């Protein structure tokens, strides 16, 4: 089965729709949604509707830090723009949507794959996997050969070496990479709704279970509309600009 | 754990029946196997994973498995299957029935034309590999086989690198890996991402075929490896005085220490080996002894500061050095068309400074050439075409090593061009559309057929304001 891995959608309906269409054209039959469904963007309700429908059809969905923040609390460790967006998001959500977010688990397992938003090592602390040290800990903690994560908004692939350390690899979009046995692999799928590597195209990964490969994709989408909606909703200008520049 | 390293004839693994063990080495065991309904002979490779085996065994096997599975075409063994169990790995591929280049070496030094034939087939195979994003990085005679039809097949991808996959070899060893006689200078300083490393190895192999000796010996230490960064090998003609100058030119061009000074692509080497009399001879061709001590000292000093270059995928490297075939008909085409073609070629040349332009024209065989006077006439026609093509290309001011001229013979211009493009790994054909003559309407146009049948991009040039 081919599983499309989406993470950090951040209420960006245009990006989510483009990635869904792209994944279907690539033969995706199931989805794993690795958290941060809301926050930043202007379409939390529409995105949650789409994702809840995927979940009803068997998709794995885990919780991210923005999803948790949208349920309540002070969000003191968040940047101002992120916090403003969270407060705005809270006002939009219906009780059913809040229940949906509340029910999301922190991690999920599917065969030899482990799904988590941040790091498999203490998932509830939302630690960023930005280097080989954190990656090695995450792969060790997941206990499964393949770990899929998000949170950092960049695409990367980590793997263990013979000495047990981790190595980082920057994937080329569209190239299917074989995930050989006897190693552990950690794929950071990049962000669907708010890429931050200078390329505004939406990012996701496709895991082909049968061939045991992973392919990272970049999907162009109508970010102008997504940015316009952010401005129209009165959300911080920085969040709109971010979609336009990818920074 | 299942032990697959000691299977007997007749035993079965996942539907593959073992016929015989063909190799038993420190790194791997090879069996000839067969499967019901199998269309071709097969080989099973089982890595040695027991305690005390070389640490590279598994990485090499893993890398070969990753890479061989995605490779296609006649120049690699066909992929069949891999073991499904994690603790009993194996892979099955096509068994290549044919001579190894290693066996040919027992006859070295070989005549230049035979070395050129073997080398051209090898370079063609290497180019096909590079086009598939893979650098071999361990080319040596034992890893090159020849199918009975003459096509070269590359084997053993244990040290290879795929431009889109993580480089597991580099992570595992942190030191130069390869075979000491064939390893390129950039591999010695730790770079594993330049397709031109394989071109260096082709140079070593050609040197060995033509002289029977290895240009850099077989050093065992890192400082021995490094010697090739500053010490030139003896020029082949010093060892084999009657070796043609073009062969020495090609060999030493491959063996340049600085990869930028080497051929850009294996396709260019294959082209020169199949068109030896068109190779422009430089100072390299005439060298009869290696550079003196001052040069070696200067190069040694420079070699201390060499750093590995930034990596790029093999195909993006090839994209900068395309082989452009320009089909000309200078004696007959209108001036406006010839001018438009000059402009089209100039655009490509300006965009890709490493491209090579091959100008060809097709000469129809004349029945009168059966007679002696006819032969003379044909020769003069041949020369006339070459002169006309050179005259056409002169305003482009291409350096000697970036342009070649060739007169093809064939009754059908289109099929001659398509076949030539296929044999010479041409990346783009540029040809002119002949006007709307009555003849074309009857016979069909050359460009239409070339567009339909060519194995590459085709650009059809029309002069401005052409009647439609």
List the helices and strands and how they pair.
The complex is a heterodimer of chains A (247) and B (468).
Chain A: E1 2-6, H1 13-25, E2 30-33, H2 44-56, E3 60-61, H3 65-70, H4 80-92, H5 95-102, E4 107-110, E5 113-116, H6 132-142, E6 146-149, E7 155-160, E8 166-169, E9 176-178, E10 185-189, E11 202-208, E12 213-219, H7 223-232, H8 237-245
Parallel strand pairs in A: 1-2, 2-3, 5-6, 6-10
Antiparallel strand pairs in A: 1-11, 4-5, 7-8, 7-10, 9-12, 11-12
Chain B: E1 12-13, E2 16-24, E3 28-34, E4 42-47, H1 56-68, E5 79-82, E6 91-94, E7 99-100, H2 101-104, H3 112-131, E8 134-135, E9 144-146, E10 152-154, E11 161-162, H4 168-173, H5 185-188, H6 196-211, H7 222-226, H8 236-239, H9 245-254, H10 266-274, H11 283-286, H12 293-303, H13 314-319, E12 323-327, H14 335-351, E13 356-363, H15 372-393, E14 403-409, H16 413-423, E15 428-432, H17 438-443, H18 446-453, E16 457-461
Parallel strand pairs in B: 12-13, 12-15, 13-14, 15-16
Antiparallel strand pairs in B: 1-2, 2-3, 3-4, 4-6, 5-6, 7-9, 8-11, 9-10
Helix pairs in contact in B: 3-6, 3-10, 6-9, 16-18
**What count of domains describes the coordinates of chain A?**
1
Shape of chain B: globular
What order do the helices and strands of chain A follow?
EHEHEHHHEEHEEEEEEEHH
Silhouette of chain A: globular
Mean pLDDT of chain A: 95
Quaternary state reads: heterodimer
Biggest interface, and residues per chain?
Answer: A-B, 15 and 18 residues
Query: CATH architecture of chain A, please?
Result: 4-Layer Sandwich
Helix content of chain A: 25-40%
Q: What's the gyration radius of chain A in Å? A: 17 Å
* DSSP strand tally of chain B: 16
Report the radius of gyration of chain B as a whole number of Å. Answer: 25 Å
* β-strand number of chain A: 12
CATH superfamily of chain A: Metallo-dependent phosphatases
What is the class of the largest domain in chain B in the CATH system?
Mainly Alpha
Biggest pleated-sheet summary of chain A: 6 strands, mixed
Into which percentage range does the β-strand content of chain B fall?
A: 15-25%
The first-level CATH class name of chain A: Alpha Beta
CATH topology of chain A: Purple Acid Phosphatase, chain A, domain 2
